[in-house]
Amino acid sequence: MTRIRVQRIEKELLRIISNTINFKLRDKYLKFITITRIRISNDLSNVRVYYTHMEDSDRENVQEALTKSTGFIKRELASAKFLRIIPEILFHYDTIEQESRKLDKIFDIIKAEKEKN
Questions:
Q1: pTM of the model as a whole
Q2: Each residue of 44-86: pLDDT tens digit?
Q3: String of b and e for 77-114 (b: at least 16 CB within 10 Å)?
Q4: Which domains does the chain have, with CATH numbers?
Q5: How far is CA 23 from CA 5, 31, 33, in A?
Q6: DSSP secondary structure string, 21-41?
């Protein structure tokens, strides 16, 4: 399958899954979730959904709530009727934001050291 088609499917999946989590699910742990990116396999059988949450302390509860809501999300994807086969959904916490904060701190330290000299 061409990468352009896969990107279009990922974009549509991102829209549907984000809307479902933000507007249709009522779990208290899913209130402050942001879907950052979606990666689908070339055969369209698996979807990896990467998310962030405002509070890192609730990470395990958020993961559990997302896992429990997978069936509902799959039904929403099925009702959208844009894929013939509904893929398996796997949720992963996205650590890119934390890593970028660490890099920003390192760059700030380097900048401070340069300004000293």
A1: 0.82
A2: 999 999 999 887 778 899 999 999 999 999 999 999 998 889 9
A3: beeeeeeeebbebebebbeeeeeeeeeeeeeeeeeeee
A4: 3-116 (3.30.300.20)
A5: 27, 9, 11
A6: IIII---GGGTTEEEEEEEE-
